[in-house]
Amino acid sequence: MKKLLMLLLAAVLAMSVLSACGGNGSNEGSSKVPAEDDGVESQTGSGEHKEVVLTAWYMAIDGIDPYYEAWGNAVTEKYPWISIEFEALTADAIAEKFAVACATGTTPDLYLDGYSRIAPAVHANLTIDLTQVVEANKDRFYSEQKDGIVNGQNRYIAISDGAPYCLVTNMTLAKELGIADMLPEDMETWSYTDFLDMLRAAKAAKPDVIPTSLYAGSKSGDAWYYSWFLGNGANITNEELTATVINDDGNREAALEVLEVFKTMIDEGLVPGGCASLVDTDVESMFYTGNMLFYPSAYNKVTQMNKLMQEGTCAEFEVDAVAMPTFQGEKSPVTVSWGSDGVVGFGNNGHENEARMAIEVLVSTPQLREDLIRTRGNLSVMSDCIIEYDTEQISSVMARGADYGGRCATSSFGIRESWWSDFRETFYVQLQDFFVGNIDAETMLANWQNTGNEVIAAALTTE
Amino acid sequence: MGKGGLILKSHKKKYSIPSTIWMVIVVCIVMAPLFIMAVGAFKPNLSLIQTPVDLVPFKDFTLNNVKKVLAESEVFLWLRNSFILSFAVACTTVFISICAGYSFAKINFRGKVVFFSIVIATMMMPKQILMIPNYLVANKLHLQDTMVGVVLTSIAPAFGIFLSRQAISSLPSELFDAAEIDGCGEVDKFFRVVVPLSIPTVGTIGILSFFSTFNDYIWQTIMISGKSLRTLPIGMSYFAQLQNNNKAAQLAMALIATVPLTVLFVLCQKFFIKGATAGAVKG
Amino acid sequence: MIFSIFYLFPLLYGILVSFTDFRLSGIDFNGLSNYKKIFSNYAFWRSLAGTARYAVIVIPLQMAVPLWIANTLRSHGNKVNVLVKLFIYLPNVTCSVALVIVWNFLFWPNIGLFSRIFDNLGIVGFSFFDNANISIPVISLLIVFSCMGQNVVIFCAAINSIPQTYYEAAELDGAVKFQQFRYITIPFLSSVITYVLVTNSIGALQIFVIPQLMTGGGPNYASSTLLMLIYNSAFGNNQFGYASAIGVLLFILSGIIAVIQFKVTKREAIEY
């Protein structure tokens, strides 16, 4: 019995080592059979090239499928022996599916998603080197690619950027309540007092109205909070990204001012109860009823709502966006903009070159990207795209968002590091405790700093 | 002994009224989601997200949601795939369960306790931990993206083996002794005595494994890529994601998916569980 | 053989992984350090306590209510039987979307039904899910109501296979309903009850979906369960080794509880 167990363990070990190698992207010994067999029926005249069917996974969004198909067609047109098979994934299973694929070396050839989910794979060197693609298209990018650079190699190409974080505003409601003039004229510069006064005025004008909401039930949407801290001058991490500094002198005061605003909102009933367990999508649904003034989100929500209104799934109202306030109403408050969407390639099916060619087609053809970016509601990171939004009003809001983001947005406080996913967890659990009143603001900052430092230290020692 | 039916009939009126009332209350609570699903599927989405929620049946009645589901999804393909998958898994599970359950319950063999413990142990490890190794196995055997692969990896007979062992072990031993005296071999005994007597158990295991496979969403998503093999839960989640903010359409989808399942459940109950009572009494 | 490929291998693999630092970048043996990390982590202890609190409410209710429903159904006709079982069982089959909508409809802050009632009573901004002392019982009830169909089906099937003659004899002897239940139904079902008890205990230790949807485990892991912690570690943070280690502990815990339950129910079974 014991011998048998030992044997089994040995076999298991061998297999796990094998799988780890497979996961490391060494594509020589690829004995695996990809989806190739399924797609061989068509396309004969490809000459000397062996036919290749690439697999690509992306996040499902209403109306986006045809634009991915268009990319696939463009690739086939240019390289007749390559075709792409797409697979739309859903938010509630994408984490498992992608993690299992990465861990077992069974990733698709192409993967398109936000950088937060891709970062661990990039940092683990699972994705293929795309430096030549970036080099060849250098002129198209506004600025250097910030994401996915490992040892000087581009292993991820961003094609669109999440818009800056802000307060999405129901302008119709604001006008109806007669408080629209309390918004800052430039939609950017206002103080905490202005902000709180406006919430109070909304509540006073109509008790049924939900002025705004806080949420800490899940990690998603946490960047909205970072915008508050950074906008008010409280740095979260040091410049070298080796430690948390939110509780250091010089940052603590500013951070406490932010937390004081949240506390005031909760204590005065300016936000719904249950802030610690609500998640951002709950708040989104409340906003869609047309009965909520400010929705904590980003500029890209503005573009996504028009379609919902036309379908009648969302109340109809005019949407605008205003920047987060700061303590004294400083000009050009810092905001967070990250959540860039992009593409990576994997080589474990032995289609490294074909994947690179397909990505090259996407990067060098602005028309293909424009539709994808517009449907996502994001902003382009490349200068060759002209994105036309549904209405003029939306276009003007998005132009303002792009301008604001260009001037004030940051993403260099650690949010692109591989340890970020661990780190943000240390933040939001403390935020939950703070929201329900288990701990005061000082304790929250101290706890966050301590646990955050542990995460960073652990990550730096293993690397 | 054709008495079974008679007894049931004469017996019918003797239920106690208070516990029946309580039962109706519980059923009402449990049914609330079904009710909301049925009402909401025929309402415009705004009625569902406004305050207070409007759940008056037939007010603002609309067929748009149902039309949307039929037009924008492949719900029938998904249903078909799910049915094939769940049916195959249910049949296999029932077969394995009854055989193994019988041997664990009535046959003595070496290492019985150890084997039985291992069977139970497979239920105790959380699925999330097993996803990676399970997928490794499937991948090494080239089973990913095939129906056979999903079926093979979805079979989880532990609960069925356990349940049938418990059920069979509560059958009176005299029956088996009698069969033995009549000259039945092990195989004969199994098919002539065990199987007929275990029909309700067979039905239960079949139903439970059918529906739990039906719902095993995450694993199916991991195993299946490609539109042609998509099962109902994957499809529903896909549809729900596209209709992210349209709760009414999601409810309509759920309703359409529920109808065939309801029919199936009623049929199973009729054929396997209630219909079997008479047989069990006869035995 | 097939059994060992599909079940034993993954199981052993999972246990093995718990001794490694398994991330996407590769796999390294690190001995017991995952376990050390677990025991020094307050999130683990809170999740363990949370799991226990859910289990203490869920297990007894999930045993008692279905057993009682099945017993009540015994004296009803076929049609009532099928209908009741259908209505109790179907909610956990298809309409998780509907479930979430219903719960939001009931529990949402500001908009939800309960919150409106509380508002009218003068308790503004009340939330069910920000305080684990309230959220755990509420969520446990939701779990019981949405998952008990399975047990009803199992108990009904078992009760239906009790020979009717036993009850007739008891009735002739003048036994009242409760006595019939206590002295015929319970003993006859004892092995099935053991089954339900063991499997439901294993299930209760793996509570995940509903708390994840309703509270996400907050505030600060107060309503978290072990499986939620495993999920977050494995698929949120890509720490498969750490997640597997928690999984192994959960596995051992389930094992111990199951052994105790087997022992206890066996002793009971001898009593009559």
Could you walk me through the main structural features you see in this protein, from its secondary elements to its overall organization?
The complex is a heterotrimer of chains A (463), B (283) and C (272). By secondary structure, chain A is an alpha/beta fold. Chain A has helices spanning 2-23, 65-78, 91-104, 115-123, 131-136, 171-176, 192-205, 223-231, 252-267, 280-288, 300-311, 352-364, 366-376, 392-408, 420-435, 441-462, and strands spanning 52-59, 82-89, 110-114, 149-150, 153-154, 157-161, 165-170, 294-298, 319-322, 335-336, 341-345, 379-380, 409-410. Chain B folds into two domains: 16-62, no CATH class; 63-282, MetI-like (MetI-like fold, Orthogonal Bundle), CATH 1.10.3720.10. In chain B, helix 6 crosses helix 9 (158-169), helix 9 (158-169) runs antiparallel to helix 12 (199-214) and helix 14 (232-242) packs antiparallel against helix 15. Chain B is globular. By secondary structure, chain C is mainly α. Chain C has 13 helices and two strands; from the N terminus they run H-E-E-H-H-H-H-H-H-H-H-H-H-H-H. The longest helix of chain C is centred in the N-terminal third of the chain and has 33 residues, at 42-74. The chains are: A alpha/beta (463), B mainly alpha (283), C mainly alpha (272). Chains in contact: A-B, A-C, B-C. The interface between B and C is large, with 88 and 86 residues.
List the helices and strands of chain C in order.
HEEHHHHHHHHHHHH
* Portion in strands of chain C: under 5%
* Helix and strand pattern of chain B: HHHHHHHHHHHHHHH
Characterize the biggest β-sheet of chain B.
none
* Name of the CATH homologous superfamily of the largest domain in chain B: MetI-like
Considering the chains and any ligands shown, give keywords for the structure.
heterotrimer, A: 463 residues, alpha/beta, D-Maltodextrin-Binding Protein, domain 2, 2 domains, 6-stranded mixed sheet, 3-stranded antiparallel sheet, 16 helices, 12% strand, globular, B: 283 residues, mainly alpha, MetI-like fold
Write the layout of secondary structure elements.
The complex is a heterotrimer of chains A (463), B (283) and C (272).
Chain A: H1 2-23, E1 52-59, H2 65-78, E2 82-89, H3 91-104, E3 110-114, H4 115-123, H5 131-136, E4 149-150, E5 153-154, E6 157-161, E7 165-170, H6 171-176, H7 192-205, H8 223-231, H9 252-267, H10 280-288, E8 294-298, H11 300-311, E9 319-322, E10 335-336, E11 341-345, H12 352-364, H13 366-376, E12 379-380, H14 392-408, E13 409-410, H15 420-435, H16 441-462
Parallel strand pairs in A: 1-2, 1-3, 10-13
Antiparallel strand pairs in A: 3-11, 4-5, 6-11, 6-12, 7-8, 7-9
Chain B: H1 3-11, H2 17-40, H3 45-49, H4 64-72, H5 75-106, H6 112-124, H7 127-140, H8 147-154, H9 158-169, H10 173-181, H11 186-197, H12 199-214, H13 217-223, H14 232-242, H15 247-282
Chain C: H1 2-17, E1 20-23, E2 26-29, H2 33-39, H3 42-74, H4 78-89, H5 96-107, H6 113-120, H7 132-147, H8 149-160, H9 164-172, H10 177-205, H11 209-214, H12 226-236, H13 240-271
Antiparallel strand pairs in C: 1-2
